[in-house]
Amino acid sequence: MYPVLKLKKNEDRRIRAGHLWVFSNEVNTKETSFEQFEPGQLVDLQASNGKSLGVAYVNPASLICARIMSRDPEHPPSQSLLVHRIKMALSLRERFFDKPFYRLVFGESDFLPGLVVDRYGEVLVVQITTAGMELMRHDVIAALEKVIRPTSILLRNDSSSREREGLGVYVETVLGEVPETVLIEDMGVKYEVPLLTGQKTGWFYDQRMNRQALAGLCKGKRVLDVFSYIGAWGVKAAVEGASEVVCVDSSASALELVGRNAEHNQVDDRMSGIQGDAFKVLKELKEENESFDLVIVDPPAFIKRKKDSKKGREAYYRLNQMAIQLLAKDGMLVSGSCSHHFPRLELQRTMLQAARHLDRNMQILIQGYQGPDHPVHPAIPETEYLKAIFARITPA
Question: Domain 79-178 carries which CATH code?
Answer without folding.
Answer: 3.30.750.80
